[in-house]
Amino acid sequence: MTDLPSRIAITEEGPREGFQIEPGPIPTQRKVELINALSHTGVSSMQVCSFVNPKLVPGWADASDVLNLIDTVDGVKYTALWFNNKGIQRALEYAGKLHLTGCIHLCASEAFSLNNLNRDRETNIRAMHTQTADHQQAGIAVIKISVMAAFGCNYSADVPVADVLRAVEDGFEIASAHDAVITEIALADTMGWATPTRIQSVTGAVRERWPDIPLRLHLHDTRGLGISNAWSAMQLGVDRFDTTVGGLGGCPFARQPGASGNIATEELVLLAHEEGMDTGIDLDAMLDCAELAESIVGHPLPGALLRGGSLNRYRQKAKTTSGVA
Amino acid sequence: MTDLPSRIAITEEGPREGFQIEPGPIPTQRKVELINALSHTGVSSMQVCSFVNPKLVPGWADASDVLNLIDTVDGVKYTALWFNNKGIQRALEYAGKLHLTGCIHLCASEAFSLNNLNRDRETNIRAMHTQTADHQQAGIAVIKISVMAAFGCNYSADVPVADVLRAVEDGFEIASAHDAVITEIALADTMGWATPTRIQSVTGAVRERWPDIPLRLHLHDTRGLGISNAWSAMQLGVDRFDTTVGGLGGCPFARQPGASGNIATEELVLLAHEEGMDTGIDLDAMLDCAELAESIVGHPLPGALLRGGSLNRYRQKAKTTSGVA
């Protein structure tokens, strides 16, 4: 456990992931309310919306309105997600508010790519060349390689480590062809297949091959092992995680109706703080945001801590009543 | 990770924990239905009911009826819970069906003992002397020491390791006074305060002191860290766990309305199997039981795997469609 990082960097993706999948409609003002509240938790990075086709993702038809209305806070990086040049152009309109960087998206499972993107490996590589060129042309640096289905896949089942390495290699080849300098590799457990040991074998192999590029994990809690997977990664020194407040998000993939979404921000923060790692986040403020998120979506969120309650609040109560009991 | 056990022994406590806390009323026949289904999952030990005051725990007013109606299966140990001599006498009536052993219950936090049992440490020790004598007189061997609030407490907050050791010592002194031979020490994270490192420090200290007595963990997933705590314990070689199917149970303790209950059986089984440990349990059969449990209680249970779906079923589908895709 000597490799535990001293600080964990969390990217809050609750707004983007959550409002994308909720049947809604959720009023724009309530989305803004959650983003503004999250801005004051101490979180340093937050993905706030998607610039996608409103016919396909009606939950983000109001992305521009949300961006116009939020109050940005110094020290917080606001980011957005997009998948094509139209998205890039929309994002550019918010260059003053958004931290704009580009990402090369790949799949470790070709079956997942075919089923969800309708692209085989070669077609996706071509698409990523085009998208990387579009980014560079727009003046947006492409700095990240992200590999979906890096730990398993509902279509092809177990994903060999070699296929993850190949996807990352594809990413570096694409980047290299466009003189893009990659500064982060993200591995996504898109459908919740990871286990603690699989986390260690996959992240270990990627790190052995690219020892100088920091790793990020995007974990889903589809099968209840999400936090143990994060813990396993922390023990290898991984210190960048995507999470969603309250566990917002669900899973949009075929064959998994109703499944849990990302790991809950507040639970990762609890784990980090109790294990002596800093996050910069005020856990009680984040728990308040989880309650707010639950009231906005109008149904229980999967996070357990949301109901279990802050240890620090119990510690405070114990202190104030210890003379009396 | 070399200390990972090759086999994990799981005690299913879903029926007892779940039906005790559900507002209900749940028809006796449906309780029997779940117990009978669980009997065919390969689980080797199951706590099926409580012999407690029906005015205090109306959910178990029908304990005798349930026991009369269940079909016991060879190879499954059926157990029950009780807290006084009246309970012992009721359990004795089912000596043919139940595996009867006695337990010495202690609290690592005196504040918890005072608030939930209305007993300070000395009063509880006296009560346990009486109860141990009652068991021995009834011909029921007292073989277990169980320590509640072993990892933290909603009333006194953090619980020092020394207080856990003192509680176990109290247990051995009581056992010794009655010539009871203890063969198991159970540590309960009654209110969900454990973290992976706290699990290792507490179980490590207990094992260092009593190296020959096997440890059992009774973990609650109150704050989302339950499975990571189990994983942390397995890495120290702990191989006995109490769980509840679907995460049945909730938390009956003050200050935690609506909190999650025990760790979900199917999630611990998934973790064990994926990490190469045997449990004797058919995971898909256990998942079917979690669905049944959810339909019986009539509201969503906290288990994530219940909605995420069996990896093995996806593996099977991937195999049968791989020629086509």
What does this protein look like?
2 copies of one chain form a homodimer. With 325 residues, chain A is of the alpha/beta class. Chain A has a single domain, classed as TIM Barrel (Alpha-Beta Barrel), CATH 3.20.20. Chain A contains 13 helices and 8 strands. The first copy, chain A, has an 8-stranded parallel β-sheet. In chain A, strand 6, helix 8 and strand 7 form a beta-alpha-beta unit. The longest helix of chain A has 17 residues. Chain A is globular and about 65 Å long. The model of chain A has no long low-confidence stretch (mean pLDDT 94).
State the main characteristics.
homodimer, 325 residues, alpha/beta, TIM Barrel, 8-stranded parallel sheet, 8 strands, 14% strand
Number of strands of chain A: 8
In CATH, the topology of chain A is named TIM Barrel
**CATH arch. level architecture of chain A:** Alpha-Beta Barrel
Decide which structural class fits the backbone of chain A.
alpha/beta
Number of helices of chain A: 13
Tell the overall outline of chain A: globular
- By CATH reckoning, the class of chain A would read Alpha Beta
Query: Considering DSSP H and I runs of 4 or more, what fraction of the residues of chain A is helical?
Result: 40-55%
Write the layout of secondary structure elements.
The structure is a homodimer of 325-residue chains.
Chain A: E1 9-12, H1 14-21, H2 28-39, E2 45-51, H3 63-69, E3 77-82, H4 85-92, E4 102-107, H5 110-116, H6 121-137, E5 142-148, H7 161-177, E6 184-189, H8 196-209, E7 215-219, H9 226-235, E8 240-243, H10 265-274, H11 283-297, H12 305-308, H13 311-321
Parallel strand pairs in A: 1-2, 1-8, 2-3, 4-5, 5-6, 6-7, 7-8
